[in-house]
Amino acid sequence: MCRNITTLRGLEPPATDEEIAAAARQFVRKVTGVQSPSAATAEPLDRAVDEIAAIVARLLDELPARRQPPTTVPPLRRPEVRARLDHLHEHEHEHEHEHEHEHEHEHEHEHRSPVAP
To answer: CA angle at residue 25 from 23 to 31, to 5 degrees?
Structure first.
């Protein structure tokens, strides 16, 4: 996760729904201190991200245009970040395919050795 939320107002082309949701997710993670949602925290965190993203989208639509574009490029527009996400999504798709076709495979957590109390 990036440490700073980048400016979305004034981007050309305008900020996408994906970029707005990513900024909302980053904000929620920062204010809650929850980096990896658990079963107990996933639903309220997802709901907060959706609500904040909707507010930000509406706010960006209502604000006047900027005179100059932001000085930073949002992470989702950086080639190295996009490549990393594309690779991650490709791996997730392959994993889902294995489940759909009931192929035997191991999960990451199955490789970990038990931790002593």
So the answer is: 100
- Return d(Cα 4, Cα 22) in angstroms, integer: 12
Instruction: Identify the band that residue 39 occupies on the pLDDT scale cut at 50, 70 and 90.
Output: very high
In this prediction the pTM is 0.65
User: What gap in Å lies between CA 105 and CA 67, rounded to an integer?
Assistant: 54
Share in percent of the chain as helix, strand, coil (round to 5)? 55, 0, 45
The 3-class secondary structure across 11-63, one letter per residue, is CCCCCCHHHHHHHHHHHHHHHHCCCCCCCCCHHHHHHHHHHHHHHHHHHHHHC
Query: In one letter, which amino acid is 64?
Result: P
Q: Rounded to whole angstroms, how far apart are CA atoms 111 and 106? A: 8
Taking the C-alpha atoms of residue 31 and residue 23, their distance in angstroms, rounded to an integer, is 12
Sorted by sequence, the CB contacts under 8 Å of residue 65 that are 6+ apart come out as: 10
